[in-house]
Design a protein that fits this description.
Blueprint (H helix, E strand, L loop, with lengths): L1 H11 L3 H20 L13 E5 L6 H12 L8 E4 L11 E5 L11 E7 L6 E8 L9 H9 L29
Parallel strand pairs: 1-2, 1-3, 3-5
Antiparallel strand pairs: 4-5
Helix pairs in contact: 1-2, 3-4
Length: 178
């Protein structure tokens, strides 16, 4: 790509008008290339269950709503249930758990997700979504974190569900259908 860019720039030095046109086309290609496609770093081999810890104050309807968003993209979940126990903190194999953040969680973050993979196969075996109660009802936060629990990485396309910046994100799910 660098050689192509140098070649185009050197060819266009002869005519300044052509340089502006070629430079615009190369920039568009570079921008498209830099954005790329959404990347999924791991996948579930089994159908996961979603368990919501009561301490998070995440309403069950929000967990269901977030799951439905991903189901409409072809993903499936076994069950979505609320766990009333105060010891609800760690996911079991085959589970996505929604819990409070651990010590050291930056208050500037709305939520975060950790996935656990099988060392041999690379498949996701469990996931842990940390969310602050004040962010549990915000649009797209739980949907975005559930995307991470399904193995999707951040994707810097404006209005995309996996955009790392909440203000620039949206409900677009281009490239993440199952």
């Amino acid at each position: 790509m660098g050689f192509l860019l140098l070649y185009i720039l050197s060819c266009s030095m002869a005519a300044n008008q052509d340089y502006a046109i070629l430079n615009a086309k190369v920039s568009a290609v570079v921008d498209t290339f830099a954005v790329g496609r959404p990347q999924q770093k791991a996948k579930w081999k089994i159908i996961p269950t979603i368990r919501v810890c009561a301490s998070t104050k995440v309403p069950t309807y929000r967990a269901v709503q977030a799951a439905r968003y991903w189901e409409s993209a072809g993903y499936t979940f076994k069950d979505i249930r609320k766990d009333p126990l105060s010891t609800c903190m760690n996911p079991h194999i085959g589970e996505i758990i929604i819990t409070l953040p651990e010590i050291g969680f930056a208050d500037s973050h709305m939520a975060s997700t950790r996935i656990y993979t099988n060392n041999e196969t690379g498949d996701i075996v469990k996931a842990k979504i940390h969310i602050l109660p004040k962010n549990s009802r915000k649009d797209r936060v739980l949907e975005h974190e559930l995307g991470h629990a399904l193995g999707w990485m951040h994707y810097r396309q404006r209005f995309h569900i996996m955009h790392p910046n909440w203000y620039q994100g949206g409900y677009d799910r281009s490239g993440i259908r199952k």
